[in-house]
């Protein structure tokens, strides 16, 4: 029988090949002290497992698997295919990735392979097969881990092998019909018409902007090619090691748009994610919260695993900020609150050599007599105290629609404003809703929306007809729908929806924009009507006409002075709102005030800008998670048992500054 995962697993990447035997013996004792019960093993071990083309060395890994099992620690065993060994790329330099401008990316780092390379695929599947045959029934094995952060450094390769694979993908997409491809790509523009798909290349660097639909299709192809590498390994593991779940670690973060994780999630037995804060950005806990809710969306609402995050500083940013006291525990509980059933880190022991030697670990360079180690031990205790919430999930009345393909399309070149960023409005609306205590699901537009009372559609630039129909049906059935600027502009081929903006949503919203009025850098406008006094907006305005909607707020000044900036239209049993400008956070807060009042959706007690309050719900119980990022205690009106302290609370919970609390509600 497969070994089950721990209920709320704790641990991280373990790289024993980096350390001498004496250190490894110490690791077992320290892992027990820290409460580690799951480690990820062999992620970057290909060169150790196959040091030469005709040589295999599994003895060291056998020993580690056996020792970890004896210590009561489960293993998330990687297929080790994330980074080919130097002998492989030396023999087959044609498998190396190539950039858009034709530069070869050479070995010396990691992920030095073209995702379309048949040579890479052949050798990776051989390694995967040998791993599965050797360890499929090992008692320590709880989870298979395919590759690592697929696409992190080689998401899009433009080599000739990729070009051939791209053409094969296009033949499937367009039924081998070059006329369909020409129509979809709009090749009548700039004399780009093809008479054979064999003439098509990736969107390499050209004298001017490449065809936008060519760029969009290449992004789709590249995501699909990486996913196909996962599926190929997954199928080997399913065949040889049935019953053991298979995952690969996503990177659901603001800086990682290249993989369509909402589509990938359907192919995983259990979704896992890596998340790292950007030290230079303010409000990192809000980006974390959005990304965690989006990760739950990739998992179809099911629990998921936090495969990597950091105890403190990372090594790869220009300036690597160390986490402050309590921050690592707060970050971890924020993920758990939004559905994570594991809290794992990169890595167990901070490395002494290599590119990531300054990346923090569970065990820091300074050893156990450190604040960081004491917090690691405390986090383990907290997770043990709240592990009864594992297996539960969130059930919310509010959805934010999110689509990676709309992200790709939104941020292509030759658009009205370089200042329009896809995640910007989604994150700000998520922030405001969360600060109001509103739980949010971040879901793909194809999700059934019938259970949601509030549906938020931010910057959904690219949209198909099925999504338009679904959003319209939700409003007609009683939901309040909120759509922001630069939504509904194009169809799935990146063709403008004619007749006036916002294109696909024009009829639903009861508005028509005849001209887009992007604001210049540093320019802002005032908007009044969302409450007492005006609020600031920037980036965007529109020459907007009412066609059935009513004006809620209008521009005071700027290129659209006197015109509507926010509108509302009654639709069936519900309503459709349009926000035609980029409101500053204060304006978004006022908008959300109106939406919460209109919908009557539940708001969780005690929430605020610096206090996250979320709920996980199981079959027979619910748990309220409170994470206080502020410098003052946070009062929360909740009844039940606070699991971290074991204290009964009856409406009088006080979460200390920088602290966390988890209440089993009664």
UniProtKB/TrEMBL annotation:
UniProt catalytic activity: Hydrolysis of terminal non-reducing beta-D-galactose residues in beta-D-galactosides
Protein keywords: Glycosidase, Hydrolase
Domain annotation Glycoside hydrolase family 42 N-terminal: ranges: 13-384
EC annotation from Swiss-Prot or TrEMBL: 3.2.1.23
SUPFAM superfamilies from the UniProt entry: (Trans)glycosidases, Class I glutamine amidotransferase-like
Entries under InterPro entries matching the protein: Beta_galactosidase_C, Beta_galactosidase_Trimer, Class_I_gatase-like, GH, Glyco_hydro_42, Glyco_hydro_42_N, Glyco_hydro_b
Limits of the Beta-galactosidase trimerisation domain: 397-601
Residues annotated as domain Beta-galactosidase C-terminal: 611-665
EC primary class: hydrolase
Gene3D superfamilies: 3.40.50.880, Glycosidases, Golgi alpha-mannosidase II
Keyword set includes Protein transport: no
Signal peptide (UniProt feature, chain positions): none
Family of the protein in this entry: Belongs to the glycosyl hydrolase 42 family.
PANTHER family for this protein: BETA-GALACTOSIDASE GANA (PTHR36447:SF1)
Protein name: Beta-galactosidase
Organism: Nocardioides pini
């Amino acid at each position: 029988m497969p070994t089950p995962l721990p209920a709320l697993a704790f641990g991280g990447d373990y790289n024993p090949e980096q350390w001498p035997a004496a250190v490894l013996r110490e690791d077992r004792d320290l892992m027990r002290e820290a409460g580690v019960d799951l480690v990820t093993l062999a992620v970057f071990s290909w060169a150790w497992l196959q040091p030469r083309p005709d040589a295999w060395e599994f003895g060291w890994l056998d020993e580690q698997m056996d020792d970890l099992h004896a210590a009561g620690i489960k293993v998330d065993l990687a297929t080790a295919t994330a980074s080919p060994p130097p002998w492989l790329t030396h023999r087959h330099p044609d498998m190396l990735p190539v950039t858009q401008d034709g530069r070869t990316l050479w070995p010396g780092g990691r992920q030095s392979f073209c995702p379309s390379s048949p040579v890479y695929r052949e050798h990776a599947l051989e390694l995967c097969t040998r791993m599965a045959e050797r360890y499929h029934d090992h008692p320590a094995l709880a989870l298979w881990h395919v590759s690592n952060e697929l696409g992190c450094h080689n998401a899009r390769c433009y080599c000739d092998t990729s070009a051939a694979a791209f053409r094969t993908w296009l033949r499937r997409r367009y039924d081998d019909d070059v006329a369909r491809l020409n129509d979809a790509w709009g090749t009548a523009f700039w004399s780009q018409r093809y008479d054979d798909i064999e003439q098509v290349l990736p969107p390499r660097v050209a004298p001017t902007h490449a065809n936008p639909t060519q760029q969009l299709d290449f992004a789709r192809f590249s995501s699909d090619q990486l996913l196909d590498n996962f599926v190929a390994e997954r199928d080997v593991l399913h065949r040889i090691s049935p019953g053991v779940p298979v995952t690969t670690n996503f990177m659901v973060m603001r800086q990682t748009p290249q993989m369509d994780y909402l589509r990938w999630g359907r192919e995983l037995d259990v979704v896992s994610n890596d998340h790292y804060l950007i030290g230079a950005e303010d409000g990192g806990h809000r980006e974390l919260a959005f990304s965690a809710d989006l990760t739950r969306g990739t998992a179809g609402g099911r629990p998921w695993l936090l495969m990597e995050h950091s105890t403190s500083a990372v090594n790869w940013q220009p300036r690597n900020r160390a986490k402050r006291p309590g921050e690592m525990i707060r970050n971890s509980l924020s993920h758990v609150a939004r559905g994570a059933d594991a809290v794992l880190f990169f890595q167990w022991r901070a490395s002494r050599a290599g590119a990531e030697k300054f990346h923090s670990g569970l065990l820091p360079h300074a050893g156990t007599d450190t604040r960081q180690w004491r917090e690691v031990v405390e986090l383990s205790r907290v997770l043990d105290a709240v592990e009864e919430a594992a297996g539960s999930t969130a059930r919310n009345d509010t959805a934010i629609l999110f689509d990676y393909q709309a992200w790709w399309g939104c941020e292509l070149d030759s658009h009205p404003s370089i200042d329009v960023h896809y995640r910007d409005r989604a994150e700000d609306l998520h922030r405001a809703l969360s600060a109001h205590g509103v739980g949010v699901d971040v879901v793909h537009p194809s999700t059934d929306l019938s259970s949601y009372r509030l549906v938020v559609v931010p910057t959904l630039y690219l949209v198909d007809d099925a999504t338009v129909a679904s959003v319209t049906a939700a409003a007609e059935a009683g939901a309040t729908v909120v759509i922001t600027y630069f939504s509904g502009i194009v169809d799935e081929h990146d063709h403008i929806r004619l007749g006036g903006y916002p294109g696909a949503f024009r009829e639903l919203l009861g508005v028509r924009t005849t001209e887009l009025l992007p604001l210049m850098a540093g320019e802002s406008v005032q908007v009044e009507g969302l409450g007492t006094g005006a609020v600031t907006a920037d980036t965007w305005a529109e020459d907007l006409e009412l066609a059935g909607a009513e004006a809620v707020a209008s521009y005071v000044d700027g290129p659209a002075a006197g015109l509507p900036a926010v509108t509302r239209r009654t639709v069936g049993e519900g309503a459709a709102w349009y926000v035609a400008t980029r409101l500053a956070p204060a304006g978004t807060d006022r908008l959300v005030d109106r939406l919460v009042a209109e919908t009557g959706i539940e708001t969780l007690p005690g929430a605020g800008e610096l206090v996250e309050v979320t709920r996980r719900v199981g079959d027979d119980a619910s748990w309220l998670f409170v994470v206080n990022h502020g410098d003052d205690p946070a009062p929360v009106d909740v009844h039940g048992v606070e699991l971290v302290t074991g204290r009964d609370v009856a409406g009088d919970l006080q979460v200390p500054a920088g602290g966390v609390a988890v209440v089993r509600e009664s």
